[in-house]
From TrEMBL:
Stated name of the protein: Transcriptional regulator AbiEi antitoxin N-terminal domain-containing protein
Ranges where the Transcriptional regulator AbiEi antitoxin N-terminal domain occurs: 6-97
InterPro entries attached to this UniProt entry: AbiEi_3, AbiEi_3_N
Length: 256
């Protein structure tokens, strides 16, 4: 391998942490030609995990190493969300968490590469495309191995859980999550509520927060939150809550 190519290889190895995917399109933008990448693979510096993605040879890479590439190299908004985000921050230890599934949210009209969706990460990827919240609001950095990824903050994660109610997420379980979130920052919650486009999510969030009796709820300015008009039936045959104009499961209303 020519000296210049060795220099480029060493620079790449130093600049990128181990345990992450390297997107081929990003590498080309950084000055690494497809021909050079072929040489690196032939020399067993890197190996392919699908069309358009490389990893260091025999490196141990999990789905978060793929998320790192999507966020930092390809500029996508995809991020660990809902219960997965809570678990990564140690906020869901009291819940039944599935070790074989990761919940990810991504903005509408963003295309997630096939290499990420098709590669066997050892778990199932549940990717939800939605823009009910701004892509860059309410995210935090979580350290993983030798790198970090952006994941939903606890407040955003709860809203993402509520987005899936009742189709794939029981509301009673979200209430159990909400009960443990007694130290949210009112300003952060306020910003999320004002920016949220889902009336259902906002009403349910406020209902659960008030029911949980959190002190931070009292510092919210609900006059600035658009709660829409008309009734929302979350479940059939449930109990109607006049204040928020929602119908919730009967078993939730008897919880004190």
């Amino acid at each position: 391998m020519a000296t210049n190519n060795k220099v480029k290889l060493n620079s790449l190895l130093r600049s990128q942490p181990s345990g992450v995917v390297l997107a081929s399109s990003w590498l080309v933008d950084q000055g690494y030609s497809f021909e050079l990448l072929k040489q690196y693979k032939k020399s067993r510096w890197f190996e392919s995990i699908g069309s358009g993605a490389l990893v260091r040879y025999e490196d141990q890479v999990d789905y978060l190493g793929g998320v790192y590439a999507l966020q930092t190299q390809l500029g996508l908004s995809i991020h660990p969300a809902a219960k997965t985000a809570l678990s990564l921050q140690g906020k869901a230890h009291y819940l039944e968490m599935s070790a074989d599934k990761a919940q990810l949210f991504v903005s509408l009209n963003e295309n997630v590469p096939l290499w990420f969706k098709k590669y066997d990460w050892g778990l199932a990827l549940e990717i939800t495309s939605t823009s009910f919240l701004p892509a860059d609001l309410g995210l935090v950095d979580v350290e993983h191995k030798s790198f970090s990824v952006k994941v939903s903050s606890p407040a955003r994660a709860v809203m993402e859980c509520l987005y899936s109610v009742p189709k794939s997420q029981p509301l009673l379980e979200v209430y159990e999550i909400m009960e443990g979130l007694n130290n949210l920052r009112p300003a952060s919650v306020q910003a999320l509520l004002e920016a949220c486009k889902s009336v259902k999510v906002k009403r349910l969030f406020l209902y659960l927060a008030e029911k949980a009796g959190h002190d931070w709820f009292n510092y919210l300015d609900l006059k600035k939150v658009d709660l829409g008009s008309g009734k929302r039936s979350i479940v059939q045959g449930g109990t109607y809550v006049p204040k928020y104009q929602i119908t919730v499961p009967k078993e939730l209303e008897v919880v004190s």
